[in-house]
Design a protein that fits this description.
This protein is an alpha+beta fold and 322 residues long. It has helices at 2-100, 105-116, 147-150, 162-169, 184-191, 229-248; strands spanning 122-129, 132-139, 154-156, 173-175, 200-207, 210-218. Strands 3-2-1-6-5-4 form a six-stranded antiparallel β-sheet, with helices on both faces. Helix 2 packs antiparallel against helix 6 (229-248).
């Protein structure tokens, strides 16, 4: 009987010990499970937050790349503009030097037209004479329109065109075609139709305050930016100064009264020779096939030559006529 009680008591103590250990293990498992759930919850929240941050970072990187691309494009455009400006300056300098090196009016104006073609798609040089604007040289015209055909262009200054406005105002005109009532007269002659370009300009060539010629240019079928107005104005001004310089450097007329001996009292007096005629205004060639050099009169006295006082002795050497 005592052994049964002892066995029951021992079993009860073992059960209590086991239950106590199991309870502690159960509590530990529950605590661990709660910690794991809490860790997974925090991990899920962190992943969600990281995704939001990643989206924001992606947007920030994209915006940064876009700004860098735009900045690079702006810098490339600025560099291209600087390069083009430097190239234009070099071309203008070469053109000015070329015009300055010419020693005749025709060479100056030829150089002007040739160099102006670098700054506009189409260029026409007009001479002002007898209330008419007469074509003289052209560059960039299509088809069979060459210098010979251009010399057949004659526009009255009484018509309302940009040429007449420039001659009257003696200032540059630049703008869209069609601003003048009679402008189609010009385009019918250089295009064959009345089709007008987007932008046209006209620059007067001034000599002693008078517009003696006009440089016309347009963009043809290109954009309006194809014309470099400032460069063309510079070339025309340099050419005008060259023409004036040539006029002022002409030799003064020789006095003929000292070269002609007084009449002999034993010979009848002869009539005095007529005075030399004054030079006309800008004189283009009368016949383009034989003579194409214009002559600009800037108000200087015409050249006169005095005959020799005595008849030179005959010589066996051939005399070269200058």
């Amino acid at each position: 009987m005592a052994s049964d009680d002892l066995e029951k008591s021992l079993r009860g103590e073992v059960d209590e010990f086991v239950n106590a250990r199991l309870q502690s293990l159960r509590e530990e498992v529950e605590r661990t499970h709660a910690q794991v759930n809490e860790a997974f919850t925090r991990l899920a929240e962190r992943l969600a937050h990281d995704q939001q941050d990643g989206a924001a970072i992606t947007v920030a990187i994209s915006e940064h790349l876009r700004q860098a691309r735009r900045l690079g494009s702006d810098e490339a455009a600025a560099e291209s503009s600087r390069t083009k400006a430097a190239s234009d300056v070099a071309i203008i300098k070469a053109a000015v030097d070329d015009i300055d090196n010419q020693r005749s009016q025709a060479d100056i104006l030829n150089s002007l037209v040739n160099r102006a073609a670098s700054f506009a798609p189409r260029v026409i040089f007009f001479v002002v004479k007898n209330d008419q604007a007469l074509g003289w040289r052209a560059r960039g015209l299509e088809g069979t329109i060459g210098d010979a055909a251009v010399r057949e262009i004659s526009l009255p200054l009484s018509a309302h065109t940009l040429l007449s406005e420039v001659v009257t105002s003696r200032t540059t005109w630049s703008g869209a075609a069609g601003a003048h009532d009679d402008e189609q007269m010009l385009f019918e002659k250089i295009n064959g139709t009345a089709q007008m370009p987007d932008r046209i300009i006209a620059i007067p060539l001034l000599a002693r305050g008078r517009a003696v010629a006009v440089l016309y240019a347009d963009c043809a079928e290109m954009d309006a930016d194809a014309i470099n107005l400032e460069a063309l104005e510079t070339l025309v001004r340099v050419a005008g100064m060259g023409v004036e310089l040539l006029a002022t450097s002409r030799p003064a007329p020789t006095a003929t009264s000292a070269a002609v001996p007084p009449p002999s009292p034993y010979q009848p007096r002869t009539a005095a020779p007529p005075p030399p005629t004054a030079q006309s205004d800008f004189e283009p060639a009368a016949n383009p096939s034989t003579e194409s050099n214009p002559q600009i009169s800037t108000g200087a006295l015409p050249e006169t030559f005095a005959p020799p006082l005595t008849q030179p002795a005959p010589s066996s050497q051939p005399v070269m006529s200058a």
